[in-house]
Amino acid sequence: MRIVFLIIMIVLSTVVLATLQATTPPYAMLTGPIMTDGRQGETVAATTFSAQIKQVQKAKTLAWDQFGRAVERQSSGTWVIVSAELQAMRETMPVRGATIIGMSGRLYHQSQRAQAAPNVLSAKTVQPGLPTTGIFIFEIPEEETRNMVLVLSRQYGPQLEDELHITLEQNGLVSRGRLEIGKNGP
Amino acid sequence: MLKPISRKTNKALLTKLLAGIGGLLAAAISLGYSLYEKRQAEIIPQVAIATPVDAGRWKVSLNGGVTGGEMPNGSHITPGKQAIAIDMVLENLSVESANSYRHLIKLQNIPDAPMPQFYLMRDKDILWDMQPMMPEVVKAVWQVPADLSLPKELRVMVEGETFKPRDNLYAAPGWFPSGSVAQVALPLAPAPAAEARP
Prior knowledge:
- The complex is a heterodimer of chains A (186) and B (198).
- Chain A has a single domain (32-180), classed as Immunoglobulin-like, CATH 2.60.40.
- Helices cover 14% and strands 46% of the residues of chain A.
- Chain A contains two helices and twelve strands, in the order ααββββββββββββ.
- Chain A has helices at 2-23, 27-30; strands spanning 34-39, 43-45, 49-66, 69-88, 93-94, 97-101, 107-109, 125-126, 132-140, 149-153, 162-167, 174-180.
- In chain A, the strands form three sheets. Chain A has a five-stranded mixed β-sheet, with no helix packed on it. In chain A, strands 2, 3, 4, 9 and 12 form a five-stranded mixed β-sheet that branches.
- Chain A is elongated, with a radius of gyration of 22 Å.
- The termini of chain A are far apart.
- Chain B is of the alpha+beta class and 198 residues long.
- Chain B has one helix at 2-42; strands at 46-47, 53-54, 58-67, 81-92, 105-107, 117-120, 125-126, 136-145, 153-164, 174-190.
- The A-B interface holds A 26-28, 73-74, 76-77, 99, 104-109, 111-113, 139-141, 144 and B 95-97, 120, 122-123, 125, 128-129, 131-136, 166, 170-173.
């Protein structure tokens, strides 16, 4: 009788401990970002900054002038150019972390190949009270450009910091062969 | 009075014996496993040129080696150095943009090879992030001393990486080195014409 009771207790405690271990949130999740969700067109605001997506465009070729020299960048997929307005709430801050979650759930960071283009937002700093407009440029495969979600943060891999998740509209997605990026954006 | 004592000693003996057998078994399994692992690690498949190699985080096919020539972006080679370049097609198999391809390829028969610089041939510029599912033609360039006599055939090792959903320290997801996955013998050809300029 006592043996049976002992075995039951051991099994029970094993189950309880296993459940506790399996449901413990990992460190990465505990210290992860503080997410705010929203949609394209509306102002999505977190405590430290807010963003409003004006327009999303697709292009096969990007072109701009760099030190008076024409630069062209082709892609095997497509370029996605997101025009946005950013506002800082409390202090001067950059918004360097910009990622598009594609159709398959893969994460596409801003393309470094187009960081020298004019008006790129990750090269700017956002001052409180001064709305800053500009663009984010991504290079992604054509089939990933449906159901895109834009993720913005102060830098990549934010910990206990704000992160905006903005669902991008598919209806307004303009596609072009070649897109010139001027001083004031595309 | 005698009987219980003898039963007790018997039991103690049995316990000790079982513990001993368990210990020996554990040691034997551990030794066998480490021997097996070492044997497995020694067998690195030889792969032909231009064959795609799955290295966990990256898929790479090495298409040939070139000596001499200039850097693909037109910058000059450091005086007293010469360039060894490998042409390849590189693809990011992970779910996120990444630029940690620097440790992917090791030169076996070049002593003290430095870290290579990768160039994106589409732009003829330095390669930064590789986007997932977007293979690109890439050139990796090593700058080695000019007086180093180069072998006819470059022996190259492709290093793998493996994904752990929870690492041992922080229980955070990440990519970790998993040893060599393939070796390739690349013939080294001199670069075409570009150097003939005065």
